[in-house]
Structure formats: structure tokens, C-alpha cells
Design brief:
Structural class: mainly alpha
Shape: globular
Largest sheet: 3 strands, antiparallel
Distance between the termini: 65 Å
Number of strands: 3
Length: 349
């Protein structure tokens, strides 16, 4: 029922032209107070589906802490697989794209929050049959556009020239083969001419358009790092004057969250930030030896035992999987462009 609205009486003298209907005003105030006194539900979920994502949000002020999550159908059918990219190669190219995104953020001196948002945007773009394909949109180009979008939406944007220069450096031969610790080499190997810059800039802006259209302009990314620190304080294990143990606990928690950005299970597009934060805290506390409150404390943060167990196992497996991927492509030959991916697929056939 729509509450009564205060009315304006028009067409009379100036003294009564803006007189309020006080009865309507009282009713409005009464409705507002009654609505405020109603007990709000503890948790209420709703879904809002478009052609790309399934938004799972929370009301009562928690919607700002939720991310759009991928559906089961989107996870099982990607455009890359439909275009003939093997699942193992798809995972490797995704990891290489995330790796170069992280490296670009470091060279651009972006905060980790912005870099993490760019990595999530990169991951979202390639999800689902209506998403991007590695055989159509190269990982390098999508990585650069994701960094550009994430930085543009923040208070610390970067110019197109800076991004193009950084990616020209990262994809040059000696740098790519020795990533992440490239040797000093001739600057001419990654020099970007004026004509090359304008071509790279046009491709960057075109890829940005593809990403925004594919994601339906839904570039919202909530990072769980701040939530994790808040949860640590709530649990009483991160005092205002931190000790060496609490510092180690916070460091390991944030480290697990950063490592989860590379996870083959795509944790940042399948689980909400609060669940990731709780799982990282649980695992870090076990590693450091910090005793957390007794009982099922994770339920306070709306995380059940089954989901917590899955995330802890997934976080523990990330390091081993990343090590295996690094050894597989130790020479920096993982394809990052459309032509390189096509050549790799032709070589495997």
C-alpha cells in the first residue's frame, strides 16, 4: 500500500498556495514510524537475471556487499569450449591472463583492490556461452581493457598510453619468457611508436566496449579483503595494537584471498565476498595456530559448514595448481593472443 503523501494546495492565495495537508502529513509520518518499527528479516535473497549473470544480493544494507554470481549453466558452457579450446588450455590461458593482469597492476602502481577488481572482470568476461572466447578476444587485450575499466571507475585512473606501454613491455620477448622477474634488456624490444600506440589504443577502447556489452555494464566487484580485516576485529583476534601473531594472521588471510583470484574453481564468481573472507580467516588461523571463538562462529557471517569446507579445500589447492601451471609454461609460451591460441590448438591436433 502506498503511504499517503503530503499534498500541496494550488490555485489559492500565496499564504495557502503551499499549505500542507497536515492530516496527510501525520499519516505519512505514522506510516513511516510503523514501517521502521517492523522487525526486518535477518536474511532475504532475491535473484535478478539478465543474459549474462545471475545477481544474488541481500537487502537491509547487505546488497552492497554482494557480487553477481555465475550460474551452473554458464560455468559448464563457455564460448571458448564451444569454439574448440580444450578445457586444460582454457584454464592455462585464463591463468596467464590473470597473471599478466596482476603484473600490469604492479607496474602501473595500482592499489591491490583495483587490481583484484580487474582480475574479476577479466574472469567474468569469459564465462558462459554468451561471454567472450579466447579464439575471438585475446587474453592480453581483455586483460588490458579490464585494468583500464577497473582503474577508470576508481579514484586512481590510468591513461591509455600508460596501459599500452605497460602491456607492450610485458608481452615483449625477454620479459615474457622470464616473468615475473624479467632481466634488463634493450628498450627497443618494447618501444611503442606513435602509430603503434594509436593502434593499441583503438584496440583497447574496442575491447572495453566488448567487455561492457558482454557484462551488461555490470562492473560492480566487491573485494573481500576489507571484510576479512573487519571480521578479524569482530572475532577479537586483531587488536588495535597488533602483535606479531595477529600480523601474521592478517597477512596470511589476505594472501589466501589474493591467491584465490587465480583459482581454477573461479571462486570469485561462484561465492560471495563474505564467504571467501570467512574461509580465508579459518584457513589462516589453522596455519598460524590462532584459536578462534568456540562453536560455529562462521554462521554469524551467514556461512554454512558445507560451503566453508569446500572453500578451505579450494584455497589449499590453489598453490599446488599454480605451481603446476608455472612449470608447464615455464618458458613463457602460454598463448595470450588469438593467433597464438590458434597455433597452439593446431599444434595439438
Amino acid at each position: 500500500m502506498t503511504p499517503p503523501v503530503a499534498k500541496l494546495t494550488l490555485g489559492r492565495s500565496w499564504r495557502t498556495a503551499f499549505a500542507l495537508d497536515f492530516a496527510g502529513l501525520i499519516n505519512s509520518l505514522h506510516f513511516g514510524f510503523e514501517h521502521w518499527r517492523k522487525p526486518a528479516p535477518i536474511l532475504k535473497r532475491y535473484t535478478c537475471s539478465n543474459r549474462r549473470t545471475k545477481m544474488v544480493s541481500k537487502v537491509n544494507g547487505l546488497s552492497s556487499l554482494s557480487n553477481p554470481l555465475a550460474t551452473v549453466e554458464q560455468l559448464s558452457n563457455s564460448s571458448s569450449s564451444l569454439d574448440g579450446v580444450p578445457p586444460s588450455l582454457e584454464s592455462s590461458v585464463r591463468y596467464a591472463g590473470l597473471q599478466i593482469t596482476q603484473a600490469a597492476g604492479i607496474l602501473l602502481r595500482l592499489p591491490q583492490e583495483i587490481v583484484a577488481q580487474a582480475m574479476v572482470i577479466f574472469t567474468r568476461f569469459y564465462i558462459g556461452s554468451e561471454g567472450g572466447s579466447f579464439r575471438v578476444n585475446g587474453a592480453k587485450d581483455v586483460s588490458a581493457a579490464s585494468v583500464y575499466i577497473a582503474a577508470k571507475l576508481s579514484a586512481d585512473p590510468r591513461t591509455t598510453r600508460s596501459i599500452c606501454n605497460v602491456y607492450a613491455y610485458l608481452t615483449s620477448g625477454p620479459t615474457r619468457q622470464a616473468f615475473p622477474d624479467p632481466p634488463a634488456h634493450d628498450p627497443e624490444s618494447y618501444f611503442l611508436s606513435e602509430g603503434g600506440y594509436h593502434s593499441a589504443r583503438a584496440l583497447l577502447l574496442q575491447t572495453e566496449t566488448f567487455i561492457l556489452r558482454t557484462l551488461s555494464f555490470d562492473t560492480k566487484v566487491v573485494i573481500p579483503h576489507h571484510l576479512a580485516l573487519t571480521y578479524l576485529q569482530t572475532l577479537g583476534v586483531l587488536p588495535s595494537v597488533p602483535s606479531s601473531t595477529s600480523r601474521e594472521l592478517a597477512s596470511r588471510t589476505l594472501g589466501h584471498l589474493n591467491l584465490a583470484l587465480f583459482s581454477p574453481q573461479l571462486l570469485y564468481v561462484t561465492h560471495q565476498p563474505m564467504t571467501l573472507a570467512v574461509a580465508a580467516i579459518y584457513l589462516a588461523a589453522r596455519e598460524v595456530g590462532v584459536k578462534l571463538p568456540s562453536g560455529e562462529w562462521w554462521e554469524v557471517f551467514d556461512v554454512d559448514r558445507e560451503e566453508l569446507g569446500f572453500l578451505v579445500v579450494a584455497l589449499k589447492s590453489c598453490e599446488g595448481w599454480i605451481k603446476a601451471e608455472s612449470e608447464k609454461w615455464h618458458d613463457g609460451s602460454c598463448p595470450l593472443t588469438v593467433d597464438e591460441i590458434n597455433l597452439e590448438i593446431m599444434g595439438r591436433s
